[in-house]
Amino acid sequence: MHSLVRLPEDDVRQQTRYAVYDMLSRRDPRLSLEQPFYNDQRVFELEMETLFKSEWLFAAMGCEMPKKGNFVTLDIGDNPIVIVRGGDGTLHGFHNVCRHRGSRLCLHEKGKVAKLVCPYHQWTYELDGRLLFAGQDMGDDFDLSAYGLQPLHVREAGGFVFVCLAETPPPLDDFLTTLEHYMALYEMDNARVAVQSDIVEEANWKLVIENNRECYHCSGAHPELLASLQEFDDTDDPRASDAYRELVKRQQATWEACNIPWQLTRLDRRNRLTRTPLIDGIVSMTPDGKVGCQKLMGSLTTPDLGSLRILHLPNSWNHCLGDHLITFRVLPLGPQRTLVTTKWIVRGDAVEGTDYDPERLRAVWDATNDQDRRLAEENQRGINSMAYRPGPYSPTFEFGVIDFLQWYGERMLTHLTGEEANES
Ligand code: 3BY
Ligand code: FES
Ligand code: FE
Asked: Sorted alphabetically, which InterPro entries does this protein's record hold (predicted)?
């Protein structure tokens, strides 16, 4: 295969690397980032080139590709990718780029195909990426085997699908094993997406994640969400009340008796899993706190599971309830534009209209997402001002943000200096 020829690095690119390196290595971890991290095109391109091309990213749910030939597409920056279920049940990931003249191959976000056929001149690929057919006119010595789709790394565990564009991806096994363990009871082979929302926020992707990593803003912004969600998910949280600690103790004893995993597991700063109670007496994130889907996930007999929260930096957080799951995927579109995709997932055999009302299922997080979108967009507009200066995070309320930026800074510095990843 021919290697990609790159134009020489221009000065601006090199200087951006130096400037970002410099800003990150001398930054005060208690403060928000300097302005260019949130609004500069060059810094954004550098992040896409380093972080988003090197890290494992949450891409989709396996239940969106239940059968052979089911595929999902998404864009990681300028890179269109396609994930497809092969004949043996495993997922294959490819750059969604035809080897003829480079057209995008799969145009839809989801679907089912027998083969991958390019819409331009109908070059046809097997689900494992091999080129099968290239028209009649490529010449007698044309070697089909030299023009397979370019693969990328895909892993699936506990119903979640991750991709990585790096040649040598960072380690992921510990996280996947933990995820399998926590997700087993949801039986994700028997699940499907009931509702999906795609929101474009006019804000930098880090502002979207920062906003998610704290609940300092919750009491002022999220009346619907706070009817079910506890503002903290850890008894060590400085804000945790005695009543919360009592509730956690009671719920954990019940979960323990049923073999339901709940322990807080942190795998470096990037992956965090914990099961935490909802508000006492509330079983789901719906307007009235009752189940949003009558058929519970897996073989559960009670919906009272609290929320299994799963964080995967840089681009996902999730709530797994007894009756449905809500997954969140963040994909940067530009320095000040971010796609947030939310999926509400129910048991595979749940019937719309009978077991669940999609409007009721989505109501709480639709409201919450819209509130968060406004907050992130106003945050962005203020940061764009000449008056913006990095401001202090509350160590009590915003330690999650401090943690995220610590991870971000470390990973950026690692990629910028080309060092091997030394975390697991
Ligand atoms: O765009 C599509 O939906 C299909 C799927 C694979 C190839 N493509 C033309
Ligand atoms: Fe795909 Fe021509 S670009 S067949
Ligand atoms: Fe919020």
From this structure: Rieske_2Fe-2S, Rieske_2Fe-2S_sf, Ring_hydroxy_dOase_asu_C_dom, Rng_hydr_dOase-A
Cα 168 to Cα 150: distance, rounded to the nearest angstrom: 15
Instruction: Considering every ligand atom shown, identify the ligand nearest to the alpha carbon of residue 105 and give its number.
Output: 1
By the 8 A CB rule, do 328 and 69 touch? no
Assigned token pair, 183 = 């997700």
* Segments making up each domain of the chain, as ranges: 187-384
Mutate to test the pocket of ligand 1, among 83, 107, 110 (most ligand atoms within 8 A of CB): 107
What is the number of the ligand 2 atom nearest to the C-alpha of 101? Answer: 3
**77 backbone φψ class: left, alpha, beta (φ>0; ψ -120 to 50):** left
CA 163 to chain centre: 10
What's the pLDDT tens digit per position in 108-140?
Answer: 999 999 999 999 999 999 999 999 999 778 988
| Contact criterion met (CB below 8 Å) for 405 and 29 | yes
**What spacing in Å lies between the alpha carbon of 123 and ligand 2's midpoint?**
6
- CA dihedral 269→270→275→280, nearest 10 degrees, is 70
Return the CATH number of the domain spanning residue range 187-384. Answer: 3.90.380.10
| ipTM of the complex model | 0.81
